[in-house]
């Protein structure tokens, strides 16, 4: 029984590390590799922090296991009183503070690229692709008419869809995000993009899908009973296909089927 706690804590930590190592093999990991250039940078940051925390975790558990093993209670022996070590305390305060400061400085560029409007692509900012309105429980999408610029207020010739956002691939695009009722969160897991939709705010979100492909669009904020079904799709297309798609939407919405008879 003396060695039980040493084995218990070492065993639990080993299991945790093993689960992490095996996770990707069983699909318990990211939903695939990042599908956008910024997503790749975000993943790199994630892995850097994962390595730092993993090394710390393994080191702490190795020391804990060793100490529990070596000093497990032997009857008839008095415990030694230790008042603490000033030098040691200074070291274990300064080292984590240094690591945190390093992470804070190292991630600044990615954060700025992700969130600071001044860093957004100016052309994409001037021509937002669509407005996405989150409401219980769907994504309403409003595109400007072909050749027009999206206005903050709806226009008579705007085009609408629900839960089906199309964008051109291979270049930065901006969408304007609105919240109509409660808090929702616009989440593109494959692109590593997440932004809360807040009632009363019109928030620009930029992203770039590397390849023409379909991706998940989900709500990442528990927003009510139908939160689970607030699921849409992001379809990244070639520029030509995207143009075609917008034209199809226009025909579907405004073509009344009337064809004047030809005069003989
Ligand atoms: Cu929602």
Main features:
alpha+beta, 5-stranded mixed sheet, binds copper (II) ion, single chain, Immunoglobulin-like, 264 residues, 2 domains, 10 strands
Overall description:
The chain contains six helices and ten strands. The protein is 39% helix and 22% strand. A five-stranded mixed β-sheet has the order 3-2-1-5-8. The N and C termini lie far apart (103 Å). The protein is of the alpha+beta class and 264 residues long. The relative contact order is 0.12. The chain has helices at residues 4-22, 37-70, 86-106, 108-115, 122-126, 239-254; strands spanning 130-135, 138-143, 159-162, 164-168, 173-179, 184-188, 193-197, 202-207, 214-219, 231-237. It folds into two domains: 4-70 and 88-115, no CATH class; 121-254, Immunoglobulin-like (Sandwich), CATH 2.60.40. It is elongated, with a radius of gyration of 27 Å. A hairpin with a 4-residue loop joins strand 6 (184-188) and strand 7. Copper (II) ion binds at residues 134, 184, 219, 221, 223, 227, 230. Residues 134, 184, 219, 221, 223, 227, 230 line the site of copper (II) ion (CU).
């Amino acid at each position: 029984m003396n060695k039980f706690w040493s084995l218990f804590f070492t065993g639990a930590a080993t299991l945790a590390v093993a689960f992490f190592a095996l996770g990707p093999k069983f699909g318990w990991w990211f939903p695939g590799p990042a599908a956008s250039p910024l997503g790749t940078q975000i993943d790199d940051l994630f892995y850097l922090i994962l390595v730092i925390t993993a090394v710390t975790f393994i080191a702490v558990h190795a020391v804990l296991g060793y100490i529990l093993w070596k000093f497990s209670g032997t009857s008839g022996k008095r415990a030694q009183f230790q008042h603490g070590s000033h030098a040691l305390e200074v070291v274990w305060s300064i080292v984590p503070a240094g690591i945190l400061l390093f992470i804070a400085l190292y991630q600044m560029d990615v954060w700025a690229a992700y969130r600071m409007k001044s860093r957004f692509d100016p052309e994409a900012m001037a021509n937002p692709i669509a407005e996405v309105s989150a409401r219980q429980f769907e994504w309403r999408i409003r595109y400007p008419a072909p050749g027009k610029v999206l206005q903050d207020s709806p226009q008579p010739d705007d085009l609408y869809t629900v839960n089906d956002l199309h964008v051109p691939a291979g270049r930065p695009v901006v969408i304007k995000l609105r919240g109509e009722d409660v808090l929702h969160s616009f989440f593109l897991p494959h692109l590593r993009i997440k932004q809360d939709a807040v009632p009363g705010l019109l928030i620009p979100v930029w992203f770039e899908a590397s390849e023409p492909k379909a991706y998940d669009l989900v709500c990442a904020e528990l927003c009510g009973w139908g939160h689970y079904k607030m699921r849409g799709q992001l379809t990244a297309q070639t520029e030509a296909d995207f143009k075609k798609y917008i034209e199809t939407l226009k025909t579907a919405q405004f073509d009344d089927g009337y064809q004047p008879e030809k005069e003989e």
